[in-house]
Amino acid sequence: MAFLFSFIEFSISSLSFSIKIVSLWLAGIQTWERLTPMVLNLNWVFGFLCCV
């Protein structure tokens, strides 16, 4: 019984860890989507300055 309880506890903790990883990953994707246009604009401006 104690083994079963510890196994359930381990499953819950690993599940919450997985949820944290997934939420961090999704937040990272959203941040990347926001930053990508800015980075592309900076590259465009930098390339334009180099050409001039």
From TrEMBL:
Name under which the protein is recorded: Uncharacterized protein
